[in-house]
Amino acid sequence: MRTVRVAILGQGAVGTRIAHLLLERKDTYHKLYATDIRLVAIFTSSKGLHRAHGISQDEIETPHILQDRPPGANWLENEVGTPDVLFDCGPSDFDRVPEPGSLPYYRLMLAAGKTIIAVSKSALASHGPELATLCKTNDGWIGMSGAAGAALPALDLLRGSVLGCTINKIEGCLNATTNYVLDALMQGSAGAEAGAIQTLADAVKVAQSQGFAERDASRDIEGMDSMAKLVLLANFGVLRILDSAGNQEGLRLDDVHRNGLSNNSVTSEAIAAWNEASMTPRLVSTLEQSRDGNTASGSSGKWTASVSLQTYPSSHPFSSLRGTMKGVLIHTEEMGEIFASACGPEPEATAASALKDFQAWLRDRSRLNNAKRS
User: Fold this and answer.
1) How far is 238 from 330, CA to CA, in rounded Å?
2) Is the Cα dihedral 263, 266, 271, 273 positive or negative?
3) pTM check: above 0.90
4) List of residues 6+ apart from 271 with CB closer than 8 A
5) Is 41 exposed, middle or buried, given 0-12, 13-18 or 19+ CB atoms closer than 10 A?
6) Residue 296: which pLDDT band, with cuts at 50, 70 and 90?
7) Per-residue pLDDT tens digits for 319-331
8) Across the strands, what pairs with 328?
9) Paired residues of 327 in beta bridges
10) Parallel, antiparallel or unpaired: strands 326-332 and 167-173
């Protein structure tokens, strides 16, 4: 029987749901992989809870159970002891700080050949190539389904289903909030209690009241969330910097030309024109092979990356995305166009995608151990 020691960075809705599901599925992991899952730490930037023999279900929900702790990764390394797996459910603050607060934990874990499962986009979007090199050098493992798309399996498609294809272009409606907001604007109302929606700010307020937008929705509306997800899909799905023998520079956040939603782009005149022409507006992340514009080196040719407002006829797959649905369209030479869409309740969808990575790691680890024994 092997013991896997798990820690969770972040005590928000997703981190809490992951903690509960980990403990609820302990018997399943034991039966499938002969592994004892032990949740040994839950912590934030300034507080933490450590139980060497494992945190219980009741403790997860106990108010104020996290206690003050010394700042930095030394607490995790020295007091808790570097865990086998770290779930990063911290804030996606890459646009507001010089260096993500989670970065020292990634460096600690990957230098020790451990496993990171990312829900936050910050560290991998801003320091992806560095962390990929650290991971490969030390035989670490990184999963990021929760960060790259949650319920939308865009990364799975790129790393699996189209692995034998030449990819020419990726288009994605990667942010649920902007889809909801644009639909609300086009419909002019969102429920009898909301009344008429005339402006972008009106639509954002409705999305917030329905729980589909953060209190500060600027990262979604301005396209920063979509930009970070595009960087993850580009680097880890298309350029495959985790798999390459050498060290690739990859796509940087600064390489992405970003134009989010604004009062200048989403006007009453534009909405009226889109409705009259039966066009659907979407905030779309695009990665395309090109020799011009902002580029990042790939295994073949160059890539341009952008986040921008686009419109589509009713026959286009993106027009079928309603409410908080997300979608991705992958253009390949050999298989043509591949479209996927998804929408799941939160925080369950993101937690489930993170645990998909965790179970994939358990499976790979079990196979490797079996091969060594044989």
Assistant:
1) 11
2) positive
3) yes
4) 185, 186
5) buried
6) low
7) 999 989 999 999 9
8) 172, 340
9) 173, 341
10) antiparallel
